[in-house]
UniProtKB/TrEMBL annotation:
GO terms for biological process: mitochondrial respiratory chain complex I assembly. This is IMS import disulfide relay-system CHCH-CHCH-like Cx9C domain-containing protein. It comes from Papaver somniferum. One of its GO terms (cellular component) is mitochondrion. It comes from the Eukaryota.
Amino acid sequence: GWEMKEKSTTSPLKRILVKCASQAKAYGSCVAEKVPQVDHNMCSKEFLALKACMQSVVCLHT
């Protein structure tokens, strides 16, 4: 069935989404506030936090 199993069968992406949900949310809402004035430097603090979280999740499981 569709039960959540805490095994290595969970995809890395799913783990990232679970572990980094708050960072992803912060980045997403920051970007949403700035649209349509999108620029590549905007929300860089939030982006870096999300990136750091993703990297730590990926590194823990390799």
